[in-house]
Specification:
This protein has eleven helices and nine strands. By secondary structure, it is an alpha/beta fold. The strands form two sheets. Strands 7-6-5-8-9 form a five-stranded parallel sheet. Strand 1, helix 2 and strand 2 form a beta-alpha-beta unit. Helix 1 crosses helix 11 and helix 5 packs across helix 6. Bound molecules: phosphoric acid mono(formamide)ester (CP) and norvaline. Phosphoric acid mono(formamide)ester binds next to helix 2.
Length: 304
């Protein structure tokens, strides 16, 4: 069987994705009940981080430890990747020593090159274009609080960035409608939007996007690598802040999510994370459970 990778949500069939999230809910229950479950015994996860991380690093590392395996953190500063060793060579070498590899990097093409040269599964832990692991946690969180997301409507408010692109893929794979509200010039990739025009609409009004929706999601205005654009972006995005007042225009049962880290006073009002509609802490925790299920699937220790 060909090696399975997870570079975008489109790499896993919708049916399997659904089962994987129910498996994540089961793994969460098992952990809470104190059950020892070690499907990754003697397995090694290599984690390459070319950008900062709190949640992704800790969730993957904890997942491996709890499941009986080990994880190693590799940064370009201390590996030969940072001194120009080609990605393809690194992939060939690491995949002879590790059982599964996770990468957070800049260009999406880099992770595609890595995967083409790897004998073992490669997981996208965020690129400039996509953040699929976060979507597993987000949809798991929605299911836990409200049941299936199929047929619901989601509003994405803010930047047409990597998270927004993964929400477009999620709309397709999980069967929901997505309304994206961005300032002019910050829309998501036009081809991705066009390819999903049955599910996705783009507007320049946050108010228009949130009306009656079941889930409101936002993210930072300047992503990692865009730090020098911060001031200009604060100007451009000033009418795209998510607040309890904006949430009041959504469905009365609407939830609020943010992948975190959040900037209070920018993309969210100071009180948004503490609002009862916010489920961001469950969302962050679910990275752990969803990625365990993902790795079980990629390593073949669980069959959908
Ligand atoms: N949401 C997320 O990926 O967080 P980190 O950057 O802390 O990993
Ligand atoms: N869009 C953000 C997500 C961080 C988890 C970034 O790329 O920095």
């Amino acid at each position: 069987m060909a090696t399975r990778h997870f570079l975008t949500l489109l790499d896993i069939e919708p049916d399997t994705l659904e089962k994987l999230l129910h498996r994540a809910i089961e793994l969460k229950r098992m952990l809470r009940s104190g059950e020892v479950y070690e499907p990754f015994k003697n397995k090694v996860l290599a984690m390459i981080f070319e950008k900062s991380s709190t949640r992704t690093r800790v969730s993957f590392e904890s997942a491996m430890i709890q499941c009986g395996g080990g994880a190693m953190f590799l940064s370009p500063r201390d590996t030969q990747l940072g001194r120009g060793e080609p990605v393809a060579d690194t992939a060939r070498v690491l995949s002879r020593m590790a059982d599964i590899i996770m990468i957070r990097t800049f260009e999406h093409e880099k992770i595609e090159t890595f995967a083409r040269n790897s004998q073992v599964p490669v997981i996208n832990a965020l690129t400039d274009s996509f953040h699929p692991c976060q979507l597993l946690a987000d949809i798991q969180t929605y299911i836990e609080h409200r049941g299936s997301i199929r047929g619901k409507t989601v509003a994405w408010i803010g930047d047409g960035n990597n998270m927004c692109h993964s929400y477009i893929n999620a709309a397709r794979q999980f069967g929901f409608q997505l309304r994206i509200a961005c300032p002019p010039g910050f829309e998501p990739d036009a081809t991705l939007v066009a390819n999903n025009s049955d599910r996705v609409t783009v507007t320049n009004s946050a108010q228009e996007a949130v009306a009656g929706v079941h889930l409101v999601v936002t993210d930072v205005w300047a992503s990692m690598g865009q730090e020098e654009e911060q001031a200009a972006r604060e100007q451009a995005f000033s009418s795209f802040q998510v607040s309890p007042a904006l949430m009041d225009q959504a469905d009365p049962e609407a939830l609020f999510m943010h992948c975190l880290p959040a900037h209070r006073g920018e993309e969210i009002s100071k009180d948004m994370l503490e609002d009862p509609r916010s489920v961001v802490w469950d969302e962050a925790e679910n990275r752990l459970h969803a990625q365990k299920a993902l790795m079980e699937y990629l390593l073949g220790t669980w069959k959908p």
